[in-house]
């Protein structure tokens, strides 16, 4: 039996990578990933066999990782952020489920799976900006490649009605540009124009850019594929100190201060 | 100027604690926290000055941390999980805001704040169970100590209507027992009785207990103050393998497999 690690590589800077993930990397000889994620791991992945498949080949990546592990090779499938959040882990289980149902790939079922959690972009951005996700929050992917837009729109209305702090994953891509503006218009029906919005690009990486703006002033030009957008709720508050501008979402201690 | 670290200590096991947090701990002489969180850090906090304030004294903890740092002492305020998620970070910013507005504690504004993100309970539980938070999810605290129950109930309906995967933080306490059952009843109006539910107690710690059940079978007896409850959405799927039972929430690749 061999282990397949489903390994979270964190937001970018390896100072965010915990010992558990380092141990899993050390025990893996074969790494399957989108190439950029391995590059970010630097010397931690020296001397490893790399299998880099481009964006769009997610199913192929998951299959390859299962195949390698089933051959008895010490393998890790690597995603940036947390591999459990909008990333590759779920595809491995979906493939296993599909193979079981269709009586395929019996060797896959000999693979021992170990999921290694990691720090996601939402946490890196929140830590840069103060404490914006200190109360109930949600994440919404704005990619309608795999999820029908009607489902996404229903979730935007629900998040607005429930007054959740919202993180937009996959806010835009080269081909998807209008979804962020549409999401903004929906949310303006539920929260004020001046609601704090935080934009994190290349989080914890070289050329990290953090921008604070308001819901009204959020534009698609501020955002690219490596960006996370975080929208405060109706309680989220800005504070300016000598150090900079912060956003916090209070938990309700206010009256006791 | 001195730095106040707002430091996430992760779910429990220090193998989840990244180098960034270790560096911040190494640079801090004075640690303010609920005592259990420091105990979990073991030898990493040997020889530190510990200020342990019990549950319920959150405002006092945040004040103390700001005061120590303002006196020039190298200080970290420590929360388990991610200090930005239902934890102490927001209270520090709220206190700073309040002090600014009321022209109090001018020395607090000389403190440099550095928020250190960490792995939260939801991620630890998800990694144990497969990939349940692979699509849009939300977190809801069931504690009505600081948030009116009407607000929580509104969010439960929103999360149900939006079909978000849901993590319940603070599902019960010794004095709060009925909220979880009420939440369950609300969600049963939106998703099937057999919706997968995952319960994680003492995550990554000694005596960790992971239980999988269904929304219908979820009861308050399964849950205590150190428990996180994760409820799948309408797509979340169970799969039984030789290794055990997993839950994944598909992202929509299904038709392409």
Query: What string gives the helices and strands of chain A in order?
Result: EHEHEHEHEHEEHEHEEEEE
Helical segment count of chain A:
7
CATH class of the largest domain in chain A: Alpha Beta
Helix content percent band of chain A: 25-40%
CATH topology of the largest domain in chain A: the name is Methyltransferase, Cobalt-precorrin-4 Transmethylase, Domain 2
Unreliable sequence segments of chain A: none
In short:
The structure is a homodimer of 257-residue chains. Chain A contains seven helices and 13 strands.
List keywords for this structure.
homodimer, alpha/beta, Cobalt-precorrin-4 Transmethylase, domain 1, Methyltransferase, Cobalt-precorrin-4 Transmethylase, Domain 2, 2 domains, 5-stranded parallel beta sheet, 28% helix
Account of the protein in words:
- 2 copies of one chain form a homodimer.
- Chain A is built from 7 helices and 13 strands.
- The termini of chain A are far apart.
- Chain A is α/β, with parallel strands linked by helices and 257 residues long.
- In chain A, strand 2, helix 2 (35-40) and strand 3 form a beta-alpha-beta unit.
- Chain A has helices at residues 19-26, 35-40, 58-70, 89-101, 121-129, 149-161, 179-188; strands spanning 3-8, 30-33, 49-52, 75-79, 112-116, 130-131, 137-141, 165-169, 196-201, 209-214, 227-231, 237-240, 245-248.
- The first copy, chain A, has 2 domains: 3-119, Tetrapyrrole methylase, N-terminal domain (Cobalt-precorrin-4 Transmethylase, domain 1, 3-Layer(aba) Sandwich); 122-256, 2-Layer Sandwich (Methyltransferase, Cobalt-precorrin-4 Transmethylase, Domain 2).
- A 5-stranded parallel β-sheet of chain A has the order 3-2-4-1-5, sandwiched between helices.
- Chain A is globular and about 60 Å long.
- At the A-B interface, helix 1, helix 4, strand 5, helix 5 and strand 6 of A face helix 1, helix 4, strand 5, helix 5 and strand 6 of B.
């Amino acid at each position: 039996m061999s282990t397949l690690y489903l390994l979270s590589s964190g937001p970018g800077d390896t100072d965010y990578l915990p010992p558990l993930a380092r141990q899993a990397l050390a025990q893996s000889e074969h790494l399957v990933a989108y190439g950029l994620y391995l590059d970010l791991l630097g010397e931690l992945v020296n001397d490893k066999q790399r299998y880099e498949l481009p964006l769009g080949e997610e199913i192929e990546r998951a299959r390859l990782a299962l195949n390698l592990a089933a051959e008895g090779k010490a393998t890790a499938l690597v995603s940036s952020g947390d591999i459990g959040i909008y990333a590759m882990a779920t595809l491995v289980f979906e493939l296993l489920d599909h193979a079981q149902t269709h009586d395929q790939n019996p060797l896959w079922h000999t693979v021992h799976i170990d999921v290694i959690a990691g720090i996601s972009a939402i946490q890196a951005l929140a830590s840069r900006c103060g404490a914006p996700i200190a109360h109930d929050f949600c994440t919404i992917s704005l990619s309608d490649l795999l999820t029908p837009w009607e489902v996404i729109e229903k979730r935007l209305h629900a998040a607005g009605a429930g007054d959740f702090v919202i993180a937009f994953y996959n806010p835009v891509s080269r081909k998807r540009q209008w979804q962020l503006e549409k999401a903004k218009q929906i949310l303006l029906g539920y929260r004020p124009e001046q609601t704090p919005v935080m934009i994190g690009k290349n989080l914890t990486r070289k050329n990290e850019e953090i921008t604070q703006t308001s819901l009204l002033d959020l534009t698609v030009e501020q955002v690219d594929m490596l960006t996370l957008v975080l929208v405060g709720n109706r309680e989220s508050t800005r504070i300016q100190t000598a150090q900079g501008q912060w956003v916090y979402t209070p938990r309700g201690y206010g009256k006791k201060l």
